[in-house]
Design a protein that fits this description.
This protein is an alpha/beta fold. It has a single domain (3-207), classed as TIM Barrel (Alpha-Beta Barrel), CATH 3.20.20. It has 9 helices and 9 strands. The strands form 3 sheets. Strands 3-2-1-9 form a 4-stranded parallel sheet. α2 (27-36) packs across α9 (190-207). The protein is globular. Pathway: Carbohydrate acid metabolism. GO terms for molecular function: lyase activity.
């Protein structure tokens, strides 16, 4: 899938599900529920034990319209290992020099206007606003005044109830971690996960209607 197709698939999903847990053992079951509920962009964080194996498994398991990437990519070695495992995109909470040329879309993290502008100047097709919970949708709206062409993906502590507000403020997509996953990746209820995922997908549809 070409670079822009990956990014456009993320934008269409509206939500990137951030899979983070002590181990990645349950990511396969979690991913099935998320995709069935309408979330078709998944980020496997490298801080989860067994993340690369899980990422490779999800790439084989999930339908071709689902994009699976790696998160918490902090080095060129992380990027290379993630791409070898099948990652269609890479995400980091910070800028990681050199990773933007790794061969798949890289979405670096930034927070201040200067950091966001600098990240966009590297060619990043999306810039991850992190931690988004430290500010709010108004901050994003204000950023888009002087930086209208920068596509921003707020991530970090965003509640499902706030998804529509972030998209309404101009977010290209939002990253949802704990508020979406809950304890589903650590033995919790998959039925409750499905309910949360459907509410997130509905929020995207509402914001774009």
């Amino acid at each position: 899938m070409p670079d822009m197709s990956v990014t456009e698939a993320i934008v269409r999903s509206g939500v990137v599900a951030v899979l983070r847990a002590p181990t990645a053992d349950a990511f396969s079951a979690v991913a099935d529920v998320l995709v069935e509920s309408g979330i078709t962009a998944l980020e496997v964080t490298l801080t989860s034990k067994g993340a690369l194996e899980a990422l490779a498994g999800l790439c084989r398991q999930l339908p071709p319209h689902v994009v699976v990437g790696a998160g918490t990519v902090l080095s060129a070695d992380d990027a290379e290992a993630s791409i070898d495992a099948g990652a269609a995109f890479l995400v980091s909470p910070v800028a990681v020099p050199g990773v933007e040329g790794a061969g798949v879309p890289f979405y670096p993290g930034a927070f201040t206007p200067s950091e966001i502008f600098a990240a966009a100047r590297t060619g990043a097709p999306l810039v991850k606003l992190f931690p988004a919970s430290a500010v709010g949708p108004r901050y994003l709206k204000d950023l888009h005044g002087p930086l209208p062409d920068v596509r921003i993906m707020p991530t970090g502590g965003i509640e499902i109830a706030d998804v529509a507000a972030w998209l309404g403020a101009g977010a290209a997509a939002v990253g949802l971690g704990g508020p979406l996953l809950g304890d589903a990746a650590s033995g919790g209820s998959l039925a409750r996960l499905a309910d949360r995922a459907r509410r997130a997908a509905d929020a995207v549809a509402y914001a774009r209607s």
